[in-house]
Amino acid sequence: LLLLLLAPGPGGASEITFELPDNAKQCFYEDIAQGTKCTLEFQVITGGHYDVDCRLEDPDGKVLYKEMKKQYDSFTFTASKNGTYKFCFSNEFSTFTHKTVYFDFQVGEDPPLFPSENRVSALTQMESACVSIHEALKSVIDYQTHFRLREAQGRSRAEDLNTRVAYWSVGEALILLVVSIGQVFLLKSFFSDKRTTTTRVGS
User: Fold this and answer.
1) What does DSSP say about strands 99-107 and 37-46: parallel, antiparallel, or unpaired?
2) CA 99 to CA 49: how far, in whole Å?
3) Of 62, 63, 58, 52, residue with least CA distance to 26
4) CA 53 to chain CA centroid, nearest Å
5) Are 18 and 42 in contact (CB under 8 A)?
6) What is the DSSP secondary structure assignment for residue 50, as one 8-state letter?
7) What's any one GO cellular component for it (predicted)?
8) Per mean pLDDT, which range of 40-44, 106-110, 154-158, 195-199 is the poorest?
């Protein structure tokens, strides 16, 4: 069991890609203040059927989220109390396949580019444009992450399929070789039996 304490902080996000061995479970912890909105997103990139168990608990051990054998999912909640929240990924149902799991745990909202404190006027046109660009760039980053994960998952599937095709080709070649050798010996035995029979009749 791996116990990893994530760095706390308002408006923070933790993105981690890690290996989850077979029959293993890994847990992560985050200190969250009451009333903070949080989002947990995860996706299995490689391994087996690309599924994993996920469980999220509050400081009192109450289960807030629990899913079995999920390939990917997203869960948003608001912390009901101060304390350390725990979320775990389990591959205990798998006996020989390890997984590669990505998750993004967002805590709180990003601080505004232009704080409203000590302001006596609305945002200027340039400041509004900066805010719009900032939001657009965040969307671009999210899309890039999503497509990067899809690309990694697709590459893993392609490599797995290529390995299976290679093994299947080798197996077919061996079967053809065995069948060919068997046919040669079978035909040879037919001619040997005929030669022996003819010799006996002539004598």
Assistant:
1) antiparallel
2) 9
3) 52
4) 11
5) no
6) S
7) ER to Golgi transport vesicle membrane
8) 195-199
